[in-house]
Amino acid sequence: MATPLFKSSIVKKLWMALTGLFLILFLVVHAGINAMIFFNDEGATFNQWAHFMGTNVLIRTAEIGLFIGFIVHIVDGLMLYFQNRKARPVRYARENAGVSSKWYSRSMALLGTLILLFLVLHMAHFWVKTRVTELSVDQKAVLIDGHLYENLYAEMDMVFQSPLVVVIYVLGCLALLYHLLHGFRSAFQTLGIGQHKYTGAIAVAGDAFSVIICALFASMPVAMYFDLIK
Amino acid sequence: MSSENMTLKLKIWRQKDSFEAGKMVDYTITGVSPDMSFLEMIDVLNDDLIRKGDDPVAFDHDCREGICGMCSMFINGEAHGPNRGVTTCQLHMRSFNDGDTIYIEPWRSQGFPVIKDLMVDRGAFDRIIQAGGFISVNTSGRTLDANAIPIAKEDADTAFDAATCIGCGACVATCPNSSAMLFVGAKVSQFALLPQGHPERKERVVNMVKQMDEEGFGNCSNIGACEVQCPKNISIEVIARMNREYFGALVKPEN
Fold this sequence. Notes:
The complex is a heterodimer.
Chain A: H1 9-34, H2 44-55, H3 57-86, H4 103-106, H5 108-131, E1 141-144, E2 147-150, H6 152-159, H7 163-190, H8 196-225
Antiparallel strand pairs in A: 1-2
Chain B: E1 6-14, E2 23-32, H1 38-51, E3 74-75, E4 78-79, E5 101-105, E6 114-116, E7 119-120, H2 123-130, H3 153-163, H4 170-174, H5 181-192, H6 201-214, H7 225-229, H8 237-251
Parallel strand pairs in B: 1-5
Antiparallel strand pairs in B: 1-2, 3-4, 3-5, 6-7
C-alpha cells in the first residue's frame, strides 16, 4: 500500500505512542535501579547495578535504541505541535477550553520541552560523567566485595547538595508527572485499546503509575539533600 | 437563569467574504425572552439590522430541531455554547443572564474556511465521505433487506451510536488541534461494525484518513475535548476503533 508511513496523521500518533511506551519502560528501569540508593548501604547495591548498566553489551545496545526513541518522540511531537498550530490560522477571540479538557493534555509540547531542558542538565550531571568524561567527586571508585566500582552514589550525593539543583530536579519530576498523566492513557487510546471496558482501568493504572514513578524520582534528590539516606 | 426579558451584549465575528479579513463587532440587543432559542435571538438581531439598513449576520441553520447539523456557532468559547448534547438551535436564552456578554464566532479551522460572518464551508466533510463513507450496493431491485441480516445487539447499538453523528463539525471547532478525527472515526466505525461495511472496510479507512489529512485539519493528540462538546455525545472510542481499522489495513491491505 502506498500509504506514506510518516505522512498519515494516524501513523504520526502511532510513533508517539510506541516511542512513549518505550520511554515509559525506560522510566521503570531507571527508577527501579536508582531506588537501590534507599537500601542504606552507602550505595553499594546501587553502584554495582550502575556498573552493570554501564558495561553490559545488551544494555549499551539498548541505550542506542533509547536515544533513537527519544529523538523520534521529540521530533514527531514538535512536528505535530507546529502542524496543529497551522491547522487553525485564525485563533478564537474567546476559548473556554478548560471545561472540556485538561490543561496538561493541551500542553504536552510545553511539558515535553521543559522535560527536554531538564534532560540536558540531567545528562550533563550523570550520563556525560559516567559514559564520556569522569566523575567529579573526589573518591571516584569504591571497593565492594573485593571489586572496584565507579562511585556514582557519591557523585549523586555531591550533585544533590545544591538546593537549586534539588529544586530543578523536583520541578523536572513535576513536568514529567503531568506529561505522563496524559501520555500514558493517550498511548493506549492511540493503539486502539480504547473501549469502555478498558478505559477506566487504563486511566487508573496510568494515573497511579505517573504519581508513583514521579514521586519516587523526586524523593531521591530530596532524600540526599536532607541526608535521609546513608 | 432569568424569567424577565434580557439585555445582552453580543460580540460577533463579521467577515464580508472569504477574501477579506474579519473582526469582532459589538452589538447590544434588548427584549430577549429567555424562551427564545439562540438562533431566534440572532433572528431578532438581524431583523433589527435589516430595518436599520445594515448587513444582517450570516449564519448556517436548517432544521432547528437539533438533527441536521447545520448550525455551527462557537459561543463563549464553546462549540454550540455552554450546554451539553445539544446544537446551537437547541440552546435557549434561559442559559444566559441579563447583562451577559456573549462571544459568537465561526468554527475555526484551516479545513473550514469562512464564507461570510459565521458561515463556514464544510465541504471538506463531504469530500471525506466521498472518499469512502458509503457502501457499494447494486440497486437491481433484488437488494437484500438490511434487516434480514442478523447483527449482534451490541454491535448494532455501537454502530448506531456512531451513526448519530450529524457532521456539524463541533469536534473540529473545539479541538485545540483542529482535528477531524471524531467525525471520521464515527463514520468509519458505523460501517466497520456492520456486515454491509466489511467488503470495503480496508480501503475505506485508508482513503477517508488520507482525504482528512489533505483537507488541512490538525492531528489528533487524544485531548478528548471533542467528545465533551459533541452535540450527539459521540465517544472518542470511535477514534480508537478507527486507529485499529487503520493499523489492520496497513498490516494486511487486502480485504
